[in-house]
Amino acid sequence: MVNRLHKAALTGDEIFATGMRDQWHAVCPSDFVARGDMKKVRRLGEDWLLFRQSDGTLRMLADRCPHRGAPLSQGQHLGDRVACQYHGVQVDGGGTVVSVPGMPGCNLEGKRLVTSLPVREVAGAVLAWFGTDPDAEPAPLELPERLTDDGISHFLCYAEWKAPWRFTLENLLDPMHGAFLHRESHSMFGGETSAKFRIRETDRGFFFEKTDQRGVNFDWVEFCRTGIDWVDLEIPYPPTAGPGGSFGIVGMGTPIDAETTAVFFWRYRRVEGWERDVWRFLYRTKLEERHWVVLEQDRTMLEAMAFDADQAENLYQHDLGVIRLRRLYRAQAEAQAKALQQA
How far apart are CA 230 and CA 320, in angstroms? Predict the structure, then answer.
Protein backbone atom coordinates (compact mmCIF):
# COMPACT_ATOMS: atom_id res chain seq x y z
CA MET A 1 0.00 0.00 0.00
CA VAL A 2 1.27 3.46 -0.89
CA ASN A 3 2.27 5.71 2.00
CA ARG A 4 -0.16 8.64 2.18
CA LEU A 5 0.67 10.12 5.56
CA HIS A 6 1.94 13.39 4.09
CA LYS A 7 -1.55 14.11 2.73
CA ALA A 8 -3.21 13.65 6.12
CA ALA A 9 -1.70 16.96 7.31
CA LEU A 10 -3.59 19.01 4.74
CA THR A 11 -6.05 21.52 6.19
CA GLY A 12 -9.04 23.04 4.46
CA ASP A 13 -7.05 26.24 3.87
CA GLU A 14 -4.18 24.27 2.32
CA ILE A 15 -6.49 22.38 -0.02
CA PHE A 16 -8.25 25.62 -0.98
CA ALA A 17 -4.84 27.17 -1.74
CA THR A 18 -3.32 24.27 -3.69
CA GLY A 19 -6.36 22.72 -5.38
CA MET A 20 -9.18 20.25 -4.94
CA ARG A 21 -8.35 16.57 -4.59
CA ASP A 22 -10.40 13.54 -5.67
CA GLN A 23 -10.86 14.84 -9.20
CA TRP A 24 -9.08 15.03 -12.54
CA HIS A 25 -6.81 17.95 -13.40
CA ALA A 26 -5.01 18.99 -16.57
CA VAL A 27 -1.25 18.60 -16.03
CA CYS A 28 0.62 19.75 -19.15
CA PRO A 29 0.57 19.47 -22.95
CA SER A 30 1.23 15.91 -24.16
CA ASP A 31 4.21 17.00 -26.23
CA PHE A 32 6.05 18.06 -23.08
CA VAL A 33 7.07 14.41 -22.66
CA ALA A 34 8.53 12.64 -25.69
CA ARG A 35 8.86 8.86 -26.00
CA GLY A 36 11.68 7.66 -23.77
CA ASP A 37 11.79 11.01 -21.97
CA MET A 38 11.12 12.24 -18.42
CA LYS A 39 9.87 15.57 -17.06
CA LYS A 40 9.48 16.89 -13.54
CA VAL A 41 6.35 18.94 -12.85
CA ARG A 42 4.87 20.49 -9.73
CA ARG A 43 1.10 20.28 -9.44
CA LEU A 44 -1.22 20.83 -6.46
CA GLY A 45 1.82 21.78 -4.39
CA GLU A 46 3.61 18.45 -4.89
CA ASP A 47 6.42 17.28 -7.16
CA TRP A 48 5.68 14.64 -9.80
CA LEU A 49 7.61 12.76 -12.43
CA LEU A 50 6.13 12.21 -15.88
CA PHE A 51 7.89 9.61 -17.99
CA ARG A 52 6.93 8.04 -21.26
CA GLN A 53 7.80 4.37 -21.61
CA SER A 54 9.55 3.04 -24.70
CA ASP A 55 6.15 1.88 -26.03
CA GLY A 56 4.75 5.43 -25.70
CA THR A 57 2.69 4.80 -22.53
CA LEU A 58 2.74 7.82 -20.22
CA ARG A 59 3.26 7.35 -16.46
CA MET A 60 3.05 9.79 -13.56
CA LEU A 61 4.81 9.08 -10.26
CA ALA A 62 5.42 11.00 -7.07
CA ASP A 63 8.92 12.41 -7.51
CA ARG A 64 10.27 10.69 -4.44
CA CYS A 65 12.30 7.49 -4.24
CA PRO A 66 10.84 5.15 -1.59
CA HIS A 67 14.32 4.39 -0.23
CA ARG A 68 15.65 7.76 0.94
CA GLY A 69 13.27 10.24 -0.68
CA ALA A 70 15.65 11.37 -3.44
CA PRO A 71 13.99 12.83 -6.56
CA LEU A 72 13.36 10.14 -9.16
CA SER A 73 13.42 12.88 -11.81
CA GLN A 74 17.21 13.01 -11.43
CA GLY A 75 17.44 9.29 -12.17
CA GLN A 76 17.76 7.21 -15.32
CA HIS A 77 15.03 6.24 -17.75
CA LEU A 78 15.11 2.45 -18.28
CA GLY A 79 12.29 1.96 -20.76
CA ASP A 80 9.46 0.76 -18.51
CA ARG A 81 10.95 1.93 -15.22
CA VAL A 82 13.07 4.63 -13.60
CA ALA A 83 16.28 4.08 -11.62
CA CYS A 84 17.03 6.48 -8.76
CA GLN A 85 20.43 8.11 -9.19
CA TYR A 86 21.16 8.03 -5.45
CA HIS A 87 21.27 4.26 -4.86
CA GLY A 88 19.95 2.75 -8.10
CA VAL A 89 16.54 1.63 -6.76
CA GLN A 90 14.26 0.89 -9.73
CA VAL A 91 10.56 1.76 -9.75
CA ASP A 92 8.10 0.82 -12.50
CA GLY A 93 5.25 2.93 -13.88
CA GLY A 94 2.82 1.59 -11.32
CA GLY A 95 5.00 2.69 -8.40
CA THR A 96 6.29 -0.80 -7.55
CA VAL A 97 9.93 -1.33 -6.59
CA VAL A 98 11.25 -3.89 -9.07
CA SER A 99 14.93 -3.93 -8.17
CA VAL A 100 17.31 -2.87 -5.40
CA PRO A 101 20.73 -3.34 -7.07
CA GLY A 102 22.65 -2.67 -3.87
CA MET A 103 20.89 -5.54 -2.07
CA PRO A 104 19.13 -8.03 -4.39
CA GLY A 105 16.22 -9.74 -2.69
CA CYS A 106 15.66 -6.77 -0.36
CA ASN A 107 12.15 -6.71 1.14
CA LEU A 108 11.41 -3.47 -0.73
CA GLU A 109 11.24 -5.40 -3.99
CA GLY A 110 7.72 -6.19 -5.18
CA LYS A 111 6.08 -3.55 -3.00
CA ARG A 112 4.11 -0.62 -4.39
CA LEU A 113 5.66 2.23 -2.44
CA VAL A 114 5.40 5.20 -4.81
CA THR A 115 2.14 6.97 -5.66
CA SER A 116 1.25 6.46 -9.32
CA LEU A 117 -1.55 8.60 -10.72
CA PRO A 118 -4.02 7.43 -13.38
CA VAL A 119 -3.45 9.51 -16.52
CA ARG A 120 -5.24 10.11 -19.80
CA GLU A 121 -4.20 12.09 -22.86
CA VAL A 122 -6.98 14.16 -24.37
CA ALA A 123 -6.94 16.86 -27.06
CA GLY A 124 -3.20 17.34 -26.77
CA ALA A 125 -3.09 17.49 -22.96
CA VAL A 126 -2.24 15.14 -20.10
CA LEU A 127 -4.99 14.72 -17.49
CA ALA A 128 -4.38 13.02 -14.14
CA TRP A 129 -6.53 11.86 -11.24
CA PHE A 130 -5.38 13.37 -7.92
CA GLY A 131 -7.00 11.18 -5.28
CA THR A 132 -6.67 11.37 -1.52
CA ASP A 133 -6.54 7.56 -1.47
CA PRO A 134 -3.93 6.24 -3.97
CA ASP A 135 -5.52 2.78 -3.83
CA ALA A 136 -9.03 3.95 -4.80
CA GLU A 137 -10.31 3.91 -8.36
CA PRO A 138 -10.66 7.32 -10.03
CA ALA A 139 -14.09 8.79 -10.61
CA PRO A 140 -15.57 8.69 -14.12
CA LEU A 141 -14.31 11.40 -16.46
CA GLU A 142 -16.73 13.10 -18.84
CA LEU A 143 -14.77 15.21 -21.31
CA PRO A 144 -15.94 18.59 -22.63
CA GLU A 145 -17.92 17.85 -25.79
CA ARG A 146 -16.14 20.74 -27.52
CA LEU A 147 -12.96 18.62 -27.40
CA THR A 148 -14.52 15.37 -28.59
CA ASP A 149 -16.92 16.58 -31.33
CA ASP A 150 -15.42 15.82 -34.75
CA GLY A 151 -17.20 18.85 -36.18
CA ILE A 152 -15.22 21.22 -33.94
CA SER A 153 -11.64 22.25 -34.63
CA HIS A 154 -9.51 23.39 -31.69
CA PHE A 155 -6.05 24.52 -30.67
CA LEU A 156 -4.53 24.12 -27.20
CA CYS A 157 -2.94 27.17 -25.63
CA TYR A 158 -0.84 26.56 -22.49
CA ALA A 159 0.82 29.03 -20.13
CA GLU A 160 2.00 29.31 -16.53
CA TRP A 161 0.91 32.36 -14.59
CA LYS A 162 2.29 33.69 -11.30
CA ALA A 163 -1.16 34.00 -9.78
CA PRO A 164 -3.28 31.79 -7.50
CA TRP A 165 -5.41 29.25 -9.37
CA ARG A 166 -8.59 30.69 -7.91
CA PHE A 167 -7.84 34.06 -9.56
CA THR A 168 -7.55 32.42 -12.98
CA LEU A 169 -10.90 30.63 -12.70
CA GLU A 170 -12.63 33.64 -11.18
CA ASN A 171 -11.42 35.67 -14.15
CA LEU A 172 -13.35 33.30 -16.43
CA LEU A 173 -16.46 33.52 -14.24
CA ASP A 174 -16.39 37.30 -14.68
CA PRO A 175 -17.75 38.06 -18.19
CA MET A 176 -17.96 41.79 -17.50
CA HIS A 177 -14.20 42.28 -17.55
CA GLY A 178 -14.27 41.62 -21.30
CA ALA A 179 -16.05 44.94 -21.92
CA PHE A 180 -13.30 46.83 -20.10
CA LEU A 181 -9.96 45.01 -20.01
CA HIS A 182 -10.35 43.62 -23.54
CA ARG A 183 -12.39 46.41 -25.11
CA GLU A 184 -9.66 47.26 -27.63
CA SER A 185 -9.32 43.65 -28.78
CA HIS A 186 -10.40 42.38 -32.21
CA SER A 187 -13.42 40.50 -30.84
CA MET A 188 -14.67 42.20 -27.66
CA PHE A 189 -15.11 45.80 -28.69
CA GLY A 190 -18.90 45.66 -29.04
CA GLY A 191 -21.79 45.81 -26.62
CA GLU A 192 -22.67 47.76 -23.51
CA THR A 193 -20.40 48.44 -20.55
CA SER A 194 -23.27 47.83 -18.12
CA ALA A 195 -25.34 44.69 -17.73
CA LYS A 196 -27.49 42.55 -15.49
CA PHE A 197 -26.57 38.93 -14.74
CA ARG A 198 -28.18 35.74 -13.51
CA ILE A 199 -27.09 32.25 -12.49
CA ARG A 200 -28.83 29.43 -14.35
CA GLU A 201 -28.44 25.91 -12.97
CA THR A 202 -27.52 22.91 -15.13
CA ASP A 203 -27.12 19.21 -14.37
CA ARG A 204 -23.32 19.63 -14.44
CA GLY A 205 -22.82 23.10 -12.96
CA PHE A 206 -24.22 26.51 -13.83
CA PHE A 207 -24.32 29.32 -16.37
CA PHE A 208 -23.43 32.86 -15.38
CA GLU A 209 -24.91 35.05 -18.09
CA LYS A 210 -26.09 38.51 -19.05
CA THR A 211 -29.87 38.86 -19.17
CA ASP A 212 -29.92 41.90 -21.46
CA GLN A 213 -27.28 41.04 -24.09
CA ARG A 214 -26.39 37.92 -26.05
CA GLY A 215 -24.07 37.20 -28.95
CA VAL A 216 -22.27 40.55 -28.81
CA ASN A 217 -19.34 40.26 -26.40
CA PHE A 218 -18.21 37.88 -23.67
CA ASP A 219 -21.85 37.50 -22.60
CA TRP A 220 -21.99 34.12 -20.85
CA VAL A 221 -19.86 31.40 -19.31
CA GLU A 222 -20.74 27.88 -18.20
CA PHE A 223 -18.92 26.27 -15.26
CA CYS A 224 -18.93 22.47 -15.48
CA ARG A 225 -17.99 19.65 -13.10
CA THR A 226 -17.73 16.35 -14.97
CA GLY A 227 -14.96 14.59 -13.06
CA ILE A 228 -12.78 17.53 -14.10
CA ASP A 229 -13.63 21.22 -13.67
CA TRP A 230 -13.80 23.38 -16.79
CA VAL A 231 -15.50 26.41 -18.24
CA ASP A 232 -16.97 27.03 -21.66
CA LEU A 233 -17.61 30.40 -23.27
CA GLU A 234 -18.18 31.90 -26.70
CA ILE A 235 -17.24 35.25 -28.23
CA PRO A 236 -18.72 36.46 -31.55
CA TYR A 237 -16.24 36.76 -34.41
CA PRO A 238 -16.13 39.53 -37.03
CA PRO A 239 -16.46 38.49 -40.72
CA THR A 240 -12.73 39.09 -41.22
CA ALA A 241 -12.03 36.01 -39.06
CA GLY A 242 -13.13 33.70 -41.87
CA PRO A 243 -15.80 30.99 -42.05
CA GLY A 244 -17.48 29.38 -39.06
CA GLY A 245 -19.55 30.46 -36.12
CA SER A 246 -18.58 32.06 -32.83
CA PHE A 247 -15.13 31.59 -31.38
CA GLY A 248 -15.20 29.46 -28.25
CA ILE A 249 -12.88 28.67 -25.37
CA VAL A 250 -12.74 25.67 -23.05
CA GLY A 251 -10.64 26.72 -20.07
CA MET A 252 -9.03 24.92 -17.14
CA GLY A 253 -6.69 26.09 -14.40
CA THR A 254 -4.53 23.67 -12.41
CA PRO A 255 -2.61 24.83 -9.32
CA ILE A 256 1.15 24.41 -9.58
CA ASP A 257 1.38 25.63 -5.99
CA ALA A 258 -0.45 28.21 -3.89
CA GLU A 259 0.90 31.11 -5.97
CA THR A 260 1.29 29.72 -9.50
CA THR A 261 -1.17 28.23 -12.01
CA ALA A 262 -0.95 26.14 -15.16
CA VAL A 263 -3.63 27.52 -17.49
CA PHE A 264 -5.14 25.62 -20.42
CA PHE A 265 -7.27 27.22 -23.11
CA TRP A 266 -8.63 25.22 -26.02
CA ARG A 267 -9.66 27.76 -28.64
CA TYR A 268 -12.32 26.21 -30.84
CA ARG A 269 -14.69 26.82 -33.72
CA ARG A 270 -17.36 24.66 -35.36
CA VAL A 271 -16.08 24.25 -38.91
CA GLU A 272 -15.87 21.31 -41.32
CA GLY A 273 -14.50 20.54 -44.78
CA TRP A 274 -12.68 23.30 -46.62
CA GLU A 275 -13.87 25.86 -44.05
CA ARG A 276 -11.98 23.93 -41.38
CA ASP A 277 -8.76 24.24 -43.40
CA VAL A 278 -9.33 27.96 -43.93
CA TRP A 279 -10.01 28.55 -40.24
CA ARG A 280 -6.91 26.66 -39.14
CA PHE A 281 -4.77 28.52 -41.66
CA LEU A 282 -6.13 31.90 -40.56
CA TYR A 283 -5.65 31.02 -36.91
CA ARG A 284 -2.02 30.05 -37.29
CA THR A 285 -1.08 32.92 -39.60
CA LYS A 286 -3.13 35.80 -38.18
CA LEU A 287 -5.55 35.16 -35.33
CA GLU A 288 -3.36 33.29 -32.85
CA GLU A 289 -1.18 36.33 -32.25
CA ARG A 290 -4.24 38.46 -31.54
CA HIS A 291 -5.55 35.94 -29.03
CA TRP A 292 -2.23 35.90 -27.23
CA VAL A 293 -2.53 39.67 -26.80
CA VAL A 294 -5.88 39.18 -25.04
CA LEU A 295 -4.45 36.40 -22.89
CA GLU A 296 -1.50 38.59 -21.93
CA GLN A 297 -3.91 41.28 -20.73
CA ASP A 298 -5.42 38.74 -18.32
CA ARG A 299 -2.02 37.48 -17.19
CA THR A 300 -0.66 40.97 -16.57
CA MET A 301 -3.70 41.95 -14.52
CA LEU A 302 -3.83 38.79 -12.40
CA GLU A 303 -0.08 38.68 -11.74
CA ALA A 304 -0.20 42.32 -10.57
CA MET A 305 -2.89 41.58 -7.99
CA ALA A 306 -1.83 40.96 -4.39
CA PHE A 307 -1.99 37.35 -3.26
CA ASP A 308 -4.66 38.32 -0.72
CA ALA A 309 -6.54 40.69 -3.02
CA ASP A 310 -9.73 38.72 -2.42
CA GLN A 311 -9.60 39.49 1.30
CA ALA A 312 -10.44 43.19 0.92
CA GLU A 313 -13.11 43.29 -1.77
CA ASN A 314 -16.43 45.06 -2.14
CA LEU A 315 -18.45 42.88 -4.49
CA TYR A 316 -21.67 43.61 -6.38
CA GLN A 317 -24.18 41.84 -8.62
CA HIS A 318 -21.70 41.20 -11.43
CA ASP A 319 -19.68 39.03 -9.05
CA LEU A 320 -22.33 36.40 -8.33
CA GLY A 321 -20.47 33.82 -10.42
CA VAL A 322 -17.25 34.44 -8.48
CA ILE A 323 -19.07 34.18 -5.14
CA ARG A 324 -20.75 30.93 -6.17
CA LEU A 325 -17.41 29.43 -7.23
CA ARG A 326 -15.66 30.37 -3.99
CA ARG A 327 -18.40 28.91 -1.80
CA LEU A 328 -18.35 25.68 -3.78
CA TYR A 329 -14.59 25.22 -3.52
CA ARG A 330 -14.39 26.33 0.11
CA ALA A 331 -17.02 23.76 1.12
CA GLN A 332 -15.28 21.04 -0.88
CA ALA A 333 -11.89 21.87 0.65
CA GLU A 334 -13.28 21.69 4.18
CA ALA A 335 -15.04 18.38 3.45
CA GLN A 336 -11.88 16.85 2.02
CA ALA A 337 -9.78 18.04 4.97
CA LYS A 338 -12.30 16.50 7.39
CA ALA A 339 -12.25 13.20 5.51
CA LEU A 340 -8.45 13.10 5.62
CA GLN A 341 -8.44 13.74 9.37
CA GLN A 342 -10.95 10.96 9.95
CA ALA A 343 -8.92 8.56 7.80
Answer: 18
